Amino acid sequence: MSRPAGDAAGRLLAFALWLLPAARYDWGLAMRAELAHLERPAARLRFAFGCVRAAAVQPAALRRLALSAGVAGAVTLLLAGGVTYPAARLELAGLLSVVVLLAWRGGRPGLLGPVRPSRTARVVRTTGFAVACAYLLVAFLDHRGPQPLGSGDGLLPGMITLVLYLVATLAMTARASTARSVTLMSGIVAGLVAGSACFALMPFERALPPLAEHLPGNGAWLIAALVAAPAAAMIVVALSTRDALQTVVALMCAGAVCAGVVAVLGYGAFLLFPDQMPSLVPLNAGPPDVRRALSRLEAGDEYVAALIWGCLLVGVLSSLIRPAVRGRTRVLRAATITGACLVLLAAPTGHVDAAVAAVLAATTTGMLTLVSAAHDLRRSGTTTARITSRR
Amino acid sequence: MLRALAADPSEWRYGYELGREVDLKAGSLYPILMRLADRGLLESSWEKAPVAGRPPRHLYRLTGAGLEAAAEVAARADSAAERDRPGTRRSLRGAW
């Protein structure tokens, strides 16, 4: 008579099965069947331990274990680490859940995964998650203990932007993405260069002159870098792919990364060097820690513009990285591009509210285009399979 | 492992029994079997007539490519043993 699977060995084997990736599921069943034929408890336990060891050395299982350990660590920090304001705790827990959900979805076939078998795609995806985790850690450290302004202000826009960027990163590095490795790499490098140049050229909160003023030639050469980096990316991509869409994708990618870099540097400066930053509020605004917090909030407001541009570009990018097979997807893509054009018209003419509304609309339709394109792909895959099976 | 599987190439073997024969615990046995299967050297099948009340077990045997690999490994091992035999140059050099 076989032993029940609910003993210690059975439970260990169930854990081994949980660790094994889906592609190795048959091996897990084979282990379970072997265990069912063992009678002596010691032999069963030894065998089950061995199976856990065999499952744990699979790369996918190691990733799963690392993810679980990271989540457990983050949740513990969040609950026990002194984030006192319920709203901030709720927002941070929400962001953590979304990042974990995206990490899980990114490993499964579909809209966001699995990752393309290319080193560039893996590096870009890993960097995306590293940035998200760093943001979570900074936000957590920043909201520990009593807050001078009394709540977790300023978290939500950053969180929404981060999630949008993460979704775009996963979609661009997924197997079904049409963005090639050269497109990704050229766009990202150009965005990093252009973002740093742009930040140096911007006046700092209307209180400090641009950093570029202290550089040789007043940093005029940075303007050349700002223009040349995306142009170089476009040329490199055009020459290597001979595809106009890839060239546009590289440009959008450069723009989104550039906006992200400007926002992170602008907001991060107040976090990293609070004592060197100028006070943007009058002296009678309160004690030093309150003035510092208010100054940071003001700085955040200023750099929200970069985040808004970033969201728009991520929306347009998302609408371009999957082939639009069906009419509905093509309409959504056209709406996204039209929305982006409206923003370009409204923002310089001072119609800020209209520009923000157009950004929201374009970002939403951009994401819907991505979902719709993935649906198209699934449907066309099913149709192809049906036709093939009929033959 | 290859030698054990190649001893009777037509026979299907159980994983646990194979592990006991080559003195490998499950933690080492299954990763080796998985790698052999991934490289197309091992084929597997489910037991056709399992013991009543117990699930069918996985059975393993070498493929054609697996048999060739086993023969190659055996030949390499034989030539290494020949080199290390007492009285050969290498073992004399080692004796110094």
UniProtKB/TrEMBL annotation, chain A:
Keywords: Membrane, Transmembrane, Transmembrane helix. Coiled coil: none annotated. It comes from the Bacteria. The chain crosses the membrane at residues 87-104, 124-142, 154-172, 184-204, 219-241, 248-273, 303-324, 331-348, 354-374. This is Integral membrane protein. It comes from Microbispora corallina. The lineage of its organism: Bacteria, Bacillati, Actinomycetota, Actinomycetes, Streptosporangiales.
From TrEMBL, chain B:
Residues 76-96 are annotated as: Disordered. Residues 21-71 form the Transcription regulator PadR N-terminal domain. PANTHER family: PADR-FAMILY TRANSCRIPTIONAL REGULATOR, TRANSCRIPTIONAL REGULATOR RV3488. This is Transcription regulator PadR N-terminal domain-containing protein. The lineage of its organism: Bacteria, Bacillati, Actinomycetota, Actinomycetes, Streptosporangiales. SUPFAM superfamilies: Winged helix' DNA-binding domain (SSF46785).
